[in-house]
């Protein structure tokens, strides 16, 4: 990572820890299965949960660095002022979608908590797994906002240098 690349430290560490935990759990399960012909019961449940955490943490980091897969043909052809408008439209569409995930993910988390639902594999409360979805979507919204502000400032600065 270059020194000038913006960072999302907490999300980067969370993603790294989730990936490390998935690797350790999976490796341990493989070793135990080959050595004893049995496997750990918790590996699939934890691995799926950690994969979701890894995915959304990575999405927050990519949002901050503006490194998501995208098509920049129109963006590169626009003058700086119109590019800012495009950035704001992209941001608004993304925030709208993520806000829906936060809302409905929060409702689902509350329902699972109030119904005292348990996971089928280990019997843990399911809200413990689900609450990460709206929380990490909020992190993505925050990082998207940081990114759009930085990109818009850079565009407007470019506009003043061209004039």
Question: How is the secondary structure organized here?
Answer:
Blueprint: H1 9-36, H2 43-65, H3 73-77, H4 80-114, H5 127-130, H6 132-162
Helix pairs in contact: 1-2, 2-6, 4-6
Q: Your description of this structure?
A:
- The chain has helices at residues 9-36, 43-65, 73-77, 80-114, 127-130, 132-162.
- It is an all-alpha fold and 163 residues long.
- The relative contact order is 0.14.
- It contains 6 helices and no strands.
- Helix content is 77%, strand content 0%.
- The protein has one domain (9-162).
- It is elongated, with a radius of gyration of 20 Å.
In brief:
The chain has six helices and no strands.
Count all strands and give the number: 0
What is the CA-atom radius of gyration, in angstroms? 20 Å
Uncertain segments = none
Class of secondary structure makeup:
mainly alpha
* Order of secondary-structure elements: HHHHHH
Q: Indicate how many domains the architecture comprises.
A: 1
Number of helices: 6
| Overall average residue pLDDT | 91
* Fraction in helix: over 70%
For the biggest sheet, the summary is: none
- In percent, how much strand structure appears in the residues? under 5%
Characterize the overall form. elongated
Question: What's the N-to-C terminus distance?
Answer: 33 Å
Function: Part of the tripartite ATP-independent periplasmic (TRAP) transport system.
Transmembrane segments: 12-34, 46-63, 84-106, 126-144
Protein name: TRAP transporter small permease protein
Family: Belongs to the TRAP transporter small permease family.
